[in-house]
Amino acid sequence: MRFSKNVTKVQPSATLALNAKASEMKTLGLDVVDLSAGQPDFETPENIEAAAIKAIKAGKVSGYTAATGLPELKKAIIDRVKVDYGVTYKPSEVVVTTGAKFALYTALQVLLNQGDEVLIPIPGWVSYTEQVRLAGGVPVSVASLAGDYKVTVDELEAARTDKTKLIILNSPQNPTGVIYSREDLTQIGNWAVKNDIIIISDDIYNHLVYNGHQFHALIDISEAIRKQTILIHGLSKSYSMTGWRVGYALGDERITKVMGILIGHATGNPTAVSQYAAIEALTGPQESVEVMRRSFEERLNTVYPLLKNIPGFELKEKPAGAFYLFINVKNAVLNSGFTTTEAFCEALLEQKYVAVVPGRSFGMPDYIRISYAASMAQLKEGIIRIQDFVNGKA
Ligand code: PLP
């Protein structure tokens, strides 16, 4: 079959593939501990569900809405961003999308030409590189030489060419939980402005920050940096709304206008009922966000020392945000007689029914990603099984 060149370069999502295998095993009745998920394990807060039901009952959801989102939702987004970031956007600078994933996809589609280069700090979320390829761009991985998972201006400058068009930053970062400091972001932001490189700032985990760490934004550093930045956001993680599929992008209205045209031809509006739920999420009580955050923090503080004790598992400092641990398991893989992390993960799933994600798709093959978006009981059980697996116990 003569497929499009851009599509044939793209790899399937490793996290979704693993999730699918773990779900299949669960439906077969196997006692799977799934630590591969990129989603909170909580029910969407009740007030949000109630708002959705109310909108259905009021007959508000059967028709199309504006392709880039309900005006009331855009207002709710603008108000939330003002509270969280202290920065004000106009409605014309906002597009609502089918998840943050599609906000990112749309931004890349409207900005990239064939061969344009995009700098992606490694490790990075699996979809960045593939979405860049889908838009005809060339993903350029930039590793942190300090080994702290945070790239510096010097590292970015070394990777910059006259084809560099964009950089994708993600803080708190999936899969490491690392947060860039304000100084880091100021330096990177100024460098991007100076070199006319557009910044995509994926802030989807901004509320999930632990143990006194603080989230820092790019868009409130300077007006020049704000103008150079497309903010990608969504409700999936903070409000436990992955299934509702609501994300959004904010940025220069020349860009959001074209993103809106693309959305109009691609998906049309995000599902109407989800938009009403999103209005409640953003404008209603925020206590549930804090309850979930505290629960993630407690799990992190419990599992981090347990995982650190597993022979051959190397963990850096305790992560500051998101809900993942990224672990160098090279020694554990070799000591258990495997040659690749993928084979190790596959055997772990098949023999101990524990699902974790191999690091290759995040750009680091010697690592695994463990999600602590699972109940404390599941986490403890999963860690016991991993420990037994590494120790060669049946
Ligand atoms: N950005 C990052 C860093 C993510 O980890 C994810 C989901 O895993 C997304 C974006 C996409 O989120 P959404 O569910 O809003 O599409």
UniProtKB/TrEMBL annotation:
GO terms for molecular function: transaminase activity. Keywords: Aminotransferase, Pyridoxal phosphate, Transferase. The keyword Electron transport does not apply. It holds the Pfam family Aminotran_1_2. Coiled coil: none annotated. Residues 31-383 form the Aminotransferase class I/classII large domain. Belongs to the class-I pyridoxal-phosphate-dependent aminotransferase family. Its cofactor is pyridoxal 5'-phosphate. This is Aminotransferase. InterPro entries: Aminotransferase_I/II_large, AspAT/PAT-like, NHTrfase_class1_PyrdxlP-BS, PyrdxlP-dep_Trfase, PyrdxlP-dep_Trfase_major, PyrdxlP-dep_Trfase_small. Its EC number is 2.6.1.-. It comes from Agrilactobacillus yilanensis.
